Backbone:
């Protein structure tokens, strides 16, 4: 019997909200910070597809046998691939990123050293039955029954219809590296590539040093600003980027920041990085880290700036000393000195073990 749904299939998406939706008819789940993945199982064949409809199967070989042991013979399951940290402190997104590598020998080694887990949160097909048009209330019951006996590293996503529990998860699970809470309407069908879910993410602000910028991918203007924070020893660390500028703003930033490029490397804390990049570029050498592993055509070279400009940016989550997702530039802070931009201003959530989350802590 063939699956009623075949890849490619775009996942259901979410729109951002400042508040957790309340009222009748909502199902809440933790928002995982991993790789969205739709699993297609047809007998002994397993295919893992990413959100962008790229194949994941070769990158996570350690999941194939557990998925075959846990999932029904014919099914399509929506979920998330995550890598639990070995020290029981939650998720390790950096380790997850390392898995997207062209060398199969490295993939195999990392599969043993930092094995991934799969968290299932929706059922799109079961046997010969296409469930996309069924309401979530039906799909969720079928998913819960179908995955009643799963074992690590395959998990059924914890869920609740209690908004109070969801609010507690929103606060508590940040320490496990999770990204917030997802709200789903129990009456909704599965709508591929449409933003019919609701996501509530952590939003905070910080004052950061603007240490450099990258040119936009179209070659016109500033694509992203490189953000820095000082530690207690006075070392400036790269903590992320601020991006998503309009075309007009990208060009304005290029003009506005141009004076800060003069003699920028003379006393720059990241001088060695800048000089290494310049020398490699002059020699026609591609440096490690100069291109993105996930986006093969993305240029990660940068233009240093004198350490004089401070900006307030919004961020969602701090993980291992870096902003987990891209930040937004709010405004310049001419009243702040760069040396005042330290880690001390940031909120750091207490560590929460991955097992505490998948256990659906109540």
Residues:
């Amino acid at each position: 019997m063939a699956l009623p749904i075949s890849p490619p299939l775009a996942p259901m998406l979410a729109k951002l909200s400042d508040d957790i939706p309340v009222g009748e008819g909502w199902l809440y789940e933790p928002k995982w910070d991993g790789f969205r993945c739709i699993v297609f199982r047809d007998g002994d064949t397993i295919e893992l597809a990413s959100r962008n409809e790229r194949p994941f199967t070769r990158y996570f070989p350690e999941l194939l046998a557990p998925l075959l042991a846990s999932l029904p013979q014919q099914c399509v399951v929506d979920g998330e691939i995550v890598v639990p940290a070995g020290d029981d402190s939650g998720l390790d997104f950096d380790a997850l990123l390392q898995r997207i590598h062209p060398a199969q020998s490295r993939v195999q080694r990392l599969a043993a050293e930092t094995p991934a887990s799969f968290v299932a949160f929706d059922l799109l097909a079961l046997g010969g039955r296409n469930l996309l048009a069924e309401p979530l209330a039906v799909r969720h019951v079928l998913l819960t029954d179908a995955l009643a006996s799963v074992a690590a590293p395959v998990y059924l996503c914890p869920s609740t219809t209690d908004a109070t529990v969801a609010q507690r998860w929103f606060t508590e699970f940040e320490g496990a590296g999770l990204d917030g809470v997802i709200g789903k309407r129990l009456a909704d069908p599965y709508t591929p590539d449409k933003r019919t879910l609701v996501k509530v993410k952590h939003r905070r602000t910080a004052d950061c040093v603007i240490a450099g910028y990258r040119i936009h991918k179209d070659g016109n203007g500033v694509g992203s600003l490189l953000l820095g924070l000082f530690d207690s020893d006075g070392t400036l660390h790269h903590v992320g980027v601020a991006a998503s500028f309009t075309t007009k703003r990208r060009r304005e930033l290029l003009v506005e920041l141009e004076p800060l490029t003069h003699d920028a490397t003379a006393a720059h804390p990241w001088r060695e990085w800048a000089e290494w990049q310049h020398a490699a570029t002059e020699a026609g050498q591609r440096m490690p880290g100069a291109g993105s592993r996930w986006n093969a055509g993305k240029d990660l070279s940068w233009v240093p700036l004198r350490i004089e400009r401070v900006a307030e940016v919004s961020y969602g989550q701090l993980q291992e000393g870096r902003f987990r997702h891209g930040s937004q530039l709010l405004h310049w802070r001419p009243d702040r000195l760069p040396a005042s931009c330290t880690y001390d201003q940031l909120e750091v959530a207490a560590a929460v073990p991955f097992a505490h989350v998948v256990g659906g802590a109540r």
About this structure: Residues 13-201 form a domain with the D-amino Acid Aminotransferase; Chain A, domain 1 fold (CATH 3.30.470.30). Residues 116 and 212 are 34 Å apart (CA to CA). The first strand starts at residue 13 and ends at 17. Helices lie at 64-70, 93-98, 104-113, 136-146, 163-172, 247-257, 271-282, 354-358.
